[in-house]
Amino acid sequence: MFHRRKTYTIRPERLDEFTEFFHTYLYPIQVSHGARLVGRWVTEDKDEVMALWEYRDREHYEQVERDYRSSGLRREAMKKRARLGKDLYIKSSEEFMMPTGHYTPPRTIVSVTAYVTNADGEVLLVQNTHRNDTYEMPGGQVEEHESIVDAVHREVKEETGIEIEVDGITGIYQNVSSRVLCVTFRARYISGDLQPQEGETQEVGFFKVDASNVGDYIKRDHFQMRLLDAIDPTYMPHAIYKVRPYELLERVERHHTV
């Protein structure tokens, strides 16, 4: 792995503004082009913020940088910084580092996504602010100590404003490039009004999507695959439990749609 340490010198009173700028522009620009944020820290005096980014190798970093510099979101970020003033951060610097060994177990990020239909058979899709070249099913990362079922309810609610009823798991997908394992659920609309999530989704809606026109909406192959597998699913068995002592929280058997 190849790491880049980016350090920003800021005015303490502008920390909140800089954090919002980072999460709205700097973070999604990098992540959408393949980088992974290892962590982000601020000093006790709140005058310096450090972000540690991970890439597969230097060639990967250079490709991300080329993609980043030509992205529309970067142009938006530059305009936003101009409006906020150049002292949003006083200066920045970066250093490149290679690991000296492996000291932690391999880490895989678990995420969830949902194929949600309404009474008319339409499918819920979102357009993310940091991935606005395509529509996709709503979803996101599972939080610490959160079940995958709780996570899919939360993510759909946050990104679209609605409540759902989960029917089951239709597929599991592993992105070995970014070490993400995605669990896809099929679900039904229950209640709520559609509402984009500020800073995350710029458009949400139900669409007449099927195998014949999925490419008109979803432009990325791996997102298409998840939707196509969920159209006529065989639900996979899954269980959620605790140990020490063992407690079964949820169990769903394998079943077919009727």
Word description of this protein:
It is globular and about 55 Å long. With 258 residues, the chain is α+β, with helices and mostly antiparallel strands. Helix content is 28%, strand content 39%. The relative contact order is 0.14. The mean pLDDT is 91. Strands 2-3-1-4 form a four-stranded antiparallel beta sheet. The chain has a four-stranded mixed beta sheet with strand order 8-5-10-9. It has a three-stranded antiparallel beta sheet with strand order 7-6-11, with no helix packed on it.
Summarize this entry quickly.
The chain has 258 residues and is of the alpha+beta class. The chain has helices spanning 15-32, 58-69, 72-84, 148-160, 214-217, 221-231; strands at 2-9, 36-42, 48-55, 91-97, 109-117, 123-128, 131-136, 139-141, 163-175, 180-191, 201-207, 234-235, 238-242, 247-252, 255-256. Strand 13 and strand 14 (247-252) form a beta hairpin.
How are the SSEs ordered, and which strands pair?
Layout lengths: L1 E8 L5 H18 L3 E7 L5 E8 L2 H12 L2 H13 L6 E7 L11 E9 L5 E6 L2 E6 L2 E3 L6 H13 L2 E13 L4 E12 L9 E7 L6 H4 L3 H11 L2 E2 L2 E5 L4 E6 L2 E2 L2
Parallel strand pairs: 5-10
Antiparallel strand pairs: 1-3, 1-4, 2-3, 5-8, 6-7, 6-11, 9-10, 12-15, 13-14
Helix pairs in contact: 1-3
Structure classification: alpha+beta
DSSP E strands, number: 15
Major sheet summary line = 4 strands, antiparallel
Q: Within the largest sheet, what's the order of strands? A: 2-3-1-4
